[in-house]
Prior knowledge:
Blueprint: H1 3-9, E1 12-13, H2 22-35, H3 47-60, E2 64-68, H4 71-86, E3 90-93, H5 98-102, H6 106-109, E4 114-117, H7 127-131, E5 139-143, H8 156-168, E6 172-177, H9 183-187, H10 191-195, E7 200-204, E8 215-219, H11 221-233, H12 242-249, H13 252-273, E9 280-282, E10 290-295, H14 299-313, E11 315-316, E12 321-323, E13 330-335, H15 338-341, H16 345-360
Parallel strand pairs: 1-11, 3-4, 3-5, 5-6, 6-7
Antiparallel strand pairs: 2-8, 7-8, 9-10, 10-13, 12-13
Helix pairs in contact: 4-11, 13-16
Amino acid sequence: MTDAELRQMCHTVLPGHRQPAPAETFAAMAAWCAANDVAHDVYGEGALIQSFERKVADLLGFEAAAFCITGTMTQVTALRLACVERGSPLAALHPSAHIFKHERGNHQLLGHFQALQIGDPHRPWTLDELKALPDHLGAVSLELPAREIGGQCPSWDELQAIKDYCRTRRIHLHMDGARLWETAAAYGKPLHEICAGFDSVYVSLYKGIGGLGGAMLLGGVGFVAKAQEWFRRQGGNVIHRTPYVVAAAMQFDARLAAMPQYFRRTEALFDTLRSHPLLVPNPARPQANLLHLHMPVCRERAVAIRNAFAERHGVWLFNRVSHAQLPGHSTTEWYVGDNLLAISDQRLHDILTLWSAELAAPDQ
């Protein structure tokens, strides 16, 4: 049985949002299209997509926004153009950046830009670390929140200082905002204030929003227009963006409105975890409705515990699990969404107690 099949058999899933079946999703999309008289766009030209791009641009405080079929294409294009405009091929990124960890060297093999690593792999990079780079940078990328380190963010004062430094040094400041929607509750600031001072921002339309896929790039009118041309050159000019835009637009407002609830649930979760010391959260306090849980068992043992737990209790504990730095340890990610909102504190405590007992049991 595959992981997906085993997960489907569970009546309780802890991380993320509920995953409706395709038929349910498509039916909801069809009803929304009928209610809103939606017509297909043609190569990105159409009332729905352009009004949604305008809505997101206004929300984040930018002149323009453009849909792109993938975040991978969106980000390397933005950094490529930034480096060209600023006269340097060098872009600085955190060691855990998606471009390094998940994109198989596309920035290098496709000649987009040259990348420098900045900062420690286990915490957000700092202004001092940026200042320490002696090179003339074309761009620097900052991920808010940083997914691979448990959703960590720089402090608000540090973020403002980074913005000021990049502006005075004419370094293009780009945000990997794949999970930007989650930072408003964490910072206690509106999204346009968080984005102010960034030259470009990428946002995902499926991660926190729950759409089928797709992304947007935001920035100045000229910058976004150049990016759209590069999307075409890279094969991103699909004839109909409508399915992706509908899937995101129909739930966009509700998802954003729920973000403060997700963050409050995350704060309560951290309180609950104090009673279960074998499940160690990173960061030490919530900075978004995202965290990593460290377990005192190897990756293979963690997977075996998860699968047996699913079969025995009908509860899916986590999705992907990774090796941790310490031998005999592993780590997994929890996105706190609809699933954990629907579980009472007592039910969650009971599940964590059973899980902790499995972690403490000797390996058979």
